[in-house]
Design goal:
The chain is of the alpha+beta class. The chain is built from 7 helices and 15 strands.
């Protein structure tokens, strides 16, 4: 329990407004609940949310200590009252979450509350599967990342061992990652391999595809297969052999067939025709093909998960569900 005495500057405010300013990490719905449960007392008695504070009032807050901390990226999960997650799979060690386009995976300078990892941490905290006060080092973390405006499956580790094993499996390429994308035009041949070297301009957060090795360049390999062509667009399935920044987007643009909606690597005049403002790209399938010991993740070996509800497939290729890879 903590006590506060209302000062002249705080007088006249509604109780719930004062509580929101004093405890910015406390979600508003939870604050209202605490007031109803009389965990917020005014001069020793229960109070109402619209009570006007008077100078000298003694407020007693029976609220968990963590909500009194200063807001920071590492405790932003406390501000999430109802985590919004589309969970594809969950066990004691990992989460597979279908991220919606527009959501950051990690905090940045402009946003540290409404991110995928923040919602995952809030979800696990509220389930009482993770409590940072009892952990010395580990925090639930993402094992892979996708661009803000790309949708699809992201792997999150719930335990330190799962994080270590999964990161190694990704490094050793024992996880097959498949994407769906919509591109302008038609690939020739309709099925094949895109291979090159990517160099990145950090200031623009943009990569360039080169046919030959360049200083700082990294090998990028993508296998692709055209599933359907309709109305000037092609639905393409891609398998990432490497996982470089903007790999699919840059390679298809370099091949003369940028992704629909991609303003960074594509052409805005082409995208306006289809009224698409961000890239049509979705990480829709994962296959776990472990060839070495996987420890706690061993039960995942040989299994796969797929997302069938992909917005641009439904919009531009209606009536055709994504096909599995043979």
């Amino acid at each position: 329990m903590r006590e506060f005495t209302v000062t002249k500057n705080d007088a006249g405010q509604r109780l719930d407004r004062w509580l929101g300013k004093t405890l910015p990490l406390l979600p508003a719905p939870l604050a209202q609940k605490y007031i109803r449960l009389k965990r917020v007392k005014r001069n020793g008695k229960g109070a109402k949310r619209d009570d006007r504070l008077v100078e000298g009032d003694l407020l007693q807050l029976y609220i968990n200590d963590e909500f009194f901390d200063a807001p920071a990226p590492e405790n932003a999960f406390l501000s999430v009252f109802k985590p919004q997650l589309d969970i594809v799979y969950e066990d004691a060690h990992i989460l597979l979450v279908n991220k919606r386009p527009g959501l950051l995976v990690h905090p940045d300078q402009g946003e540290y509350v409404n991110t995928l990892i923040t919602h995952i941490q809030a979800y696990l905290y509220q389930k009482k599967e993770w409590d940072p006060r009892r952990e010395h080092a580990f925090t639930p973390a993402l094992c892979n990342r996708i661009d803000r405006n790309t949708g699809g499956i992201v792997i999150a580790a719930k335990t330190a061992e799962a994080l270590r094993v999964m990161n190694q499996k990704i490094k050793d390429r024992e996880i097959e990652k498949y994407y769906l994308c919509a591109i302008h035009g038609r690939m020739d041949p309709p099925e094949g391999r895109l291979e090159g070297f990517l160099s990145k301009d950090e200031s623009k957060n943009q990569v360039t595809v080169h046919k030959s090795p360049v200083p700082g360049g990294r090998t990028a390999v993508t296998l692709y297969k055209t599933l359907e062509t309709r109305n000037g667009l092609s639905l393409v399935e891609c398998e990432l052999i490497t996982g470089r920044t903007h790999q699919i987007r840059a390679q298809f643009a370099a091949a003369g067939h940028p992704l629909l909606g991609d303003g960074k690597y594509g052409r805005n005049r082409d995208n306006r025709r289809y009224d698409r403002k961000f890239q049509a790209l979705w990480s829709y399938k994962l296959v776990f093909s472990f060839t070495t010991d996987a420890g706690v993740l061993a039960p995942l070996n040989g299994r796969s998960w797929q997302v069938d509800d992909v917005d641009f497939v439904a919009e531009y290729f209606p009536g055709r569900p994504p096909k599995n890879t043979p």
